[in-house]
From TrEMBL:
Signal peptide: none annotated. This is Inosose isomerase. Pfam families: AP_endonuc_2 (PF01261). SUPFAM superfamilies: Xylose isomerase-like. Its EC number is 5.3.99.-. Residues 22-243 form the Xylose isomerase-like TIM barrel domain.
């Protein structure tokens, strides 16, 4: 299934997103929580069911280290509420951002994250919801997450030891690391979602993604490896930043669908 994250069309509302994605041949959507709050969870579930749209992700929960100004318990309670929303939407996964180190030593930040995840995973297991940690490139996301690579993500998953916990792999964040391809077979059993992004250079400062195929992320090779390793889940697109701001959303979606059709055809052969 091919899906689009609502972050790619940030100025559209949910109804515009669904209509626009369907027009360009997508059948899945990655829901962004602020847009969901604006529209209403139950109303959104009805709209998506009416258009036979699958929810490939709900984004995001986290900040357990206090990096976004919330206390630990507030962040955990917010995540538990998001688990329940994900269940209503029948979302494939709920994305987790660890939070920045926030002046903590790394071991303390990791213990705090694991403590939060154990509590949230217990609720997720009750509701049949999968949680996915997203490693974020340090060049553009130190304030969002101290978890920056696949190896440290796997370490946290092993420490928490919950069947509901896995990984969302965003190729923009990990795809410019030459070592990441070697980790993909180890990651595949825990992989809940692949998000495709691209960039012309390594992230530095604000995220700046370009149209798929215009950058240096080896998305074709990555998809080939994860599929050979058994991944059969959705492919979700996330495109935002200065390099795509001048492109209309319909141009962006049209280019993306054409690129993906060609890419998936090459990977399947």
């Amino acid at each position: 299934m091919l899906a689009v994250s609502q972050l790619s069309t940030l100025r559209w509302d949910l109804e515009q997103d669904v209509a626009g994605y369907a027009r360009h041949g997508f059948s899945g959507i990655g829901i962004y929580r602020p847009k969901l709050d604006d529209y209403g969870v139950d109303r959104a579930a009805e709209l998506l069911a009416e258009h036979s749209f699958a929810v490939t992700s709900l984004s995001w929960v986290g900040g357990f280290t206090g990096s976004d100004g919330r206390g630990f318990n507030d962040a955990v309670l917010d995540a538990m509420a998001a688990v329940r929303d994900a269940a209503v939407l029948r979302a494939d996964t709920l994305i987790v951002l660890a939070g920045g180190r926030n002046n903590h030593i790394r071991n303390h930040a990791r213990r705090t994250l694991c403590k939060a995840l154990r509590r949230i995973c217990a609720v997720a297991e009750e509701h049949g919801v999968k949680l996915s940690i997203e490693p974020i490139h340090p060049g553009c996301g130190d304030e969002w997450s101290f978890v920056n690579d696949l190896q440290s993500t796997l370490d946290i998953i092993e420490r928490v030891n919950s069947p509901s916990l896995g990984i969302v792999l965003d190729t923009y964040h990990i795809g410019m690391d030459e070592e990441f391809l070697h980790w993909l077979p180890d990651v595949a059993p825990y992989l809940h979602l692949v998000q495709l992004g691209d960039g012309r250079h390594c992230p530095c400062g604000e995220m700046n993604r370009c149209l798929l195929g215009d950058g240096c992320v080896p998305n074709e090779k990555l998809l080939q490896i994860v599929q050979e390793s058994g991944y059969r889940g959705p492919i979700e697109i996330e495109l935002l930043g200065e390099d795509v701001e001048a492109v209309s959303y319909h141009q962006l979606l049209g280019h993306t669908k054409e690129y993906l059709d060609g890419l998936m055809g090459q990977v399947s052969h």
